[in-house]
Each structure stands twice: as C-alpha cells, then as structure tokens.
Amino acid sequence: MNRIPCMEAVVRVLESEGVDTVFGIPGAAILPLYAALQHSSIKHITVRHEEGGTHAADGWARATGNVGVTIGTSGPAGTNMITGLYTAMADSIPMICVTGQAASGKLHQEAFQAVDIVEIAKPVTKWAVQLKEPGQAPWIFREAFRVARSGRPGPVLIDLPIDVQRGTCLYDPELDAPLPVEEPRPLASAIRRAAEMVQQARRPLILAGGGVIIADAAQELRELAEALRVPVQVTLMGKGAFPEDHELFAGMAGIQTQTRWGNAAFLDSDLVLAVGARFGDRHTGDLDVYRRGRTFIHVDIEPTQIGRVFEPDLGVVGHARPVLAELRKHAVPGDREKWVRKIGEYRRTLLRRDDFDEVPIKPPRVFREINEFFGRDTTFVTAIGLYQIWSGQFQTTFLPRRYLVCGQAGPLGWEIPAAMGVKCAHPEREVVVVVGDYSFQFLMEEVAVAAQYRIPFVIVMINNEYLGLIRQAEIPYDMNYAVDLHYGEGGIDHVKAMEAFGCPARRVDLPGDIAGALSWASATAHREGLPVLVEVMVEREANAAMGASLDAIREFEPLPELVTVDWSD
What we know:
Blueprint: E1 3-5, H1 6-16, E2 21-24, H2 31-37, E3 43-46, H3 50-64, E4 68-72, H4 76-80, H5 82-91, E5 95-101, H6 117-121, E6 127-130, H7 137-149, E7 155-161, H8 162-165, E8 168-170, H9 188-200, E9 204-208, H10 210-214, H11 218-228, E10 232-234, H12 260-268, E11 271-275, H13 281-284, H14 287-291, E12 295-300, E13 314-317, H15 320-329, H16 337-349, H17 363-373, E14 379-382, H18 386-394, E15 403-405, H19 415-425, E16 431-436, H20 437-442, H21 446-452, E17 458-463, H22 468-474, H23 494-500, E18 505-508, H24 514-528, E19 532-537, H25 553-556
Parallel strand pairs: 2-3, 2-4, 4-5, 5-7, 6-7, 9-10, 9-11, 11-12, 12-13, 14-15, 14-16, 16-17, 17-19, 18-19
Antiparallel strand pairs: 1-8
C-alpha cells in the first residue's frame, strides 16, 4: 500500500463519492488540501463569502441528491459557514463543510484565527469532528459522507489542523469505496395497519413532504395515489413531489405558503397520510384546528421525528420509497370519486386572482407570467419573505428537485449562491431565481462569481422597496418602522449594480412588459452565459394572504362549504 499525502487521499475520497464541484475560498490554514485538489478532476468555484459557499453546496446537493462540499480556512471562515450549516440541518440537506485550523499545538494559545469551530458547529450539524491524525483522514471523510446521507440527511463539519493536513497516510483507492447507507424498511404489520386506516377513511389525503423528494420517491407516490384514488397535498418542501396539474393534486395547506382550495380540502379531510413531513408551524398553524376531526398517519425515516410536534394515530418508521411501494401492494381502490370531484370543485372555485392589469404591478401577475413563460423542467430557487409566500401560493411545479427553497431556516441571500450550485450540477437546465430586493442585497457579491465562471441563470426580482414581510407583520402594532429602503435616495440601483458585475439587467414597471422581459432574460442568459436580472417594480403596499391559523383564513378569504359538505349518498 502506498504512503501518500493525507490530503491527496481525501481528494480521492471526494472523487469516488461523486463530488465533481466544490465551493470555497482558499486560505493559509487550508492550503495543503488545496494543493491536493488542484491535481484532481474536481472543479473548484471560488466564492466571495463562506456563507455563499455553503449555500452553493446546498443548492448543488438539493439538485443532485448527492453530498455538497464547501471549503474554507480557519477562524471566521468557519463561523461564516454556520448559517449555511443551520440551513442544511433544518432542511435535511447532505453537505460537508471543511475548515482549516491552526496547528494542533497552538489551539490552547489563542493562535491567529484559531477558534473551536467543532463546538460552535455541533448544534447545527449531524456530526462535527476535528481530524487528529493523518492516518484517519480518508476514513473520517468516508464516515462523513455516510453520516450526511443516512437517516434524515444533514450536514457534517470536518476541521483540519494545518499540521495534520501536512501528514501522510497509507491509502490505496482500489481498496476503498463509499460506505453503504441503510434504507430502513417499514414493519409489515405497520404497513398493513396504515393500509387499513386509509381504506376505512372516506376523505383521505396524502401529505407529501420534503422527505419524498429526498428519497427520490415521487414515482412511488404517484403510483400509490392513482391506485388508491387518494388526493395528494404537498408541503412547501414537498413542492414537485406530485405534478400540480394532476387530477389528484389537492393543493397546499398552511398559514403562509398555501392555496385557498388546498386549505379547504385539508379542512374537509378525515385522514392524513403524511410522508416525510415535519408538521412545521408555518404549515400547521393552530394545532387544535389542524388536528380536529382528522386521523393522522406519520411516516418518517427518523424515529424521533414521530410525535415531535403532535402524537399521530399511527407512526411508521421507514424510508419513503419502500414505504410507499409497500403501501401500493396493499392498495385497494375505494369509492372516492365524490371526494375527488369535490377537490376539483374547490380548485375551480377557490383560485386566487392573478390576472391583474393595474399599475403599479400586483405581485400575483408576476407569478402568472412566470408560470406561463417557463417550461416544466425549469428549476426555481427562492428564499424567504413576501416573495416566497407569493411563490408558494401561485407558482406551479411539476417535477421533483425543480422547486428549491430554504424552508425552515429561511436565510436571506440564499438564492443567488444556491442557484449557482444548481446550475453547476445541471448546466443543461434553465434555472430561475425568484428573489426580493432586500434578500438580493445580502449576498449579491456572489453574482460576481457567476459572472466569472459563466454560470447563467435568470433572476426575477420582486421589488416593493420595503422590507415587505416585516412591514406586513407590523400592521397589528400600528406602526411602519425601519422598513423603508429609500430607493432613489441613496439606495441601490439594482440594474446598475448588475451592470457593474458585467451582467445584463432590465427594470419593468408595466404588467404588459413582464413577458417580454422574461423572454429577453432567458435568451440573454443562454447566449451570454451570465446571470441576467429582471427587476419588477410592484406596488409597495402589497400584502400576502395569511393568518394565525387555518381558521383565520376565513377572516381574510371566506371559504364556502368547508366542513358542512353533505357526504351522504
């Protein structure tokens, strides 16, 4: 067996694990790893901020299903990664963050840029570890990939002291391979009971969460729904798990990212089969309202998720794909045509308007144009704010891994670097970023990275010149405080900012001009190989429909005949 620099062994591990692109910033304390990386097949994208690197690796991981990798040096590089680690942890995204570190013998002496990043990262990782011996290097990284992928996926941090990086180890890539990852299968008895409960229900729903997409189980979900004739709802993280133009699609329930008809369908259901869903508070709202009159079956790969928010009537532990496949074997189609027709009636009668012609532009019109222009295979990337809420309420999605959103942590600035990761993973796909003006400014320096490496995508900015979500949240406090961004009075001109990065941009003020601007942006991004901005100026006082619970939606948007529908034959 050959003795080689231990960082060369690490790079061979990365290659064999399917990593073709990493995102990072070199620094003195991580240079031995970079020395090994330069002779590999792996492409390195030099980002402008370590948080941007984590979000780019996150986007790469969401688009591929593989483990994303980001690299930084010691000290503030690691602390800058914490937001990205939290985001990946919250959304179950497999990712490895690699940090450089001061020499082992200096860590207790407050050496330059020496910080205990392992302890800092532990609350937001599945595993945080410092490499102690060069001989451990390939095996620590092998285990990191296994941990990141297994069970409920998530991030790992590996800290590399500079002296350990300089060491050597015995390693033969011919004698090494990725470690197996267990896909826990459900108990047969639990599957039989779940199938019986669904069969006995009159108005069942399947609720598909992000776990269905992570498990690559969209096909199994569709086959089960069609075999049972059971309508399917999705959570925000589950968008794309089920085609939204399918007869059995039942919308999205929730208090922010939701459809009116999805809330109506949910409130009318009597059983919910939730697969890979966390029951997050933005989805459930008031748990008394959410649970009332419904039986719940909760399927999750992580046993400790079951019962965390509320105790279900049945818990099933297992990987989403075999669970759905096993349920399909027990599927007995019921007489649910009346229920399916009622879902269709809700969809026809409870749609929100999106055909506004007013000036200033109303946000729903923007999403109507987005839906009409971009194809089914387009990958959309969006983050947090009123624009995310409108996106969840109005955007249509048809395929898994085509709607990427930082659902739980919600860091502003996530979209641009995440889109870079997506486009690096799938250069052939059209990638569209839906962003707010304020979020864009958080990590807009990453536009320079996309320009440098010729990573093209379309940015659609919804600009209301406010911190819109906060302004809306301030209404009950009878104030409008510290939310005005004062564009034109010393603020940022986003078109000029893009042009300063060498990227085309256009501002739109009239609804009739949106379609043409999207067409121009798509063609220009493809032709020039650059990110292209379409900034849409929308009305400043635009609000998104949402409430404190599902019941509160009646206050803003009355829903006809919800629980009072006569289901007697």
